[in-house]
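User: I'm new to structure prediction. If I give you an amino acid sequence, what do you actually give back? Let's try with this one:
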Amino acid sequence: MTYNLLKFAHILGAILMGAGLVGVWMADLRSRQLRDLSRFAEAVRNIAVFYDGLVVPGALLLLASGSWMIGGFYGGWAFLDIPWLTGMVVLFVAEFIEGNTVTRLYFMKLRRLTHQALAEGRFTRELEAERGKLVPSFTHFLDLPMLTLIIALGALKPDSWSLFLAGSAIAIVVASLLTYCIPRLYPWGAEEPSG
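Assistant: Good question. You get back a string of structure tokens that encode the predicted 3D arrangement of the chain. For your 195 residues, that looks like this:
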């Protein structure tokens, strides 16, 4: 019974996190199209709502339920002998660290700079420079492919490292392509300002 409850909590955490990341993705794409400062600020606020309201609680639920299942049902450190489980843990830890040190901090800074721009009544040079940074864009575009790989490892449970390695390479290529293509498809402020 405990295992089933933990598994349910784990699935719920993945759903919350996935929904939040999709919401962040959509709000970010929308923000890239806007030159109207108040609408841009709303898109940036939506990013924060999805991160703080869905991604963070989902990640914490995944962390708690996953740790409990590994400790109680997979022999603690013995999980290192199970490729699919080790892969899930490695990717989750990497994404958890990256998400809280690069991506989330970037969006928090973007929100702070947006508040400053609203106070000045115009897009500031600092805000425009921050919006154009490539590393946070890459890590943001890496989130969904990595979550997909984590879920694939848990669903398919491969007994080798091939899915982990191939999936990681594909996720990095996809994130690289998105980092290159999205700014060209959605150039900063492509929408005409509203009059």
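You can read the tokens as a compact description of the fold. Here is one thing that stands out. The chain has a mean pLDDT of 92.
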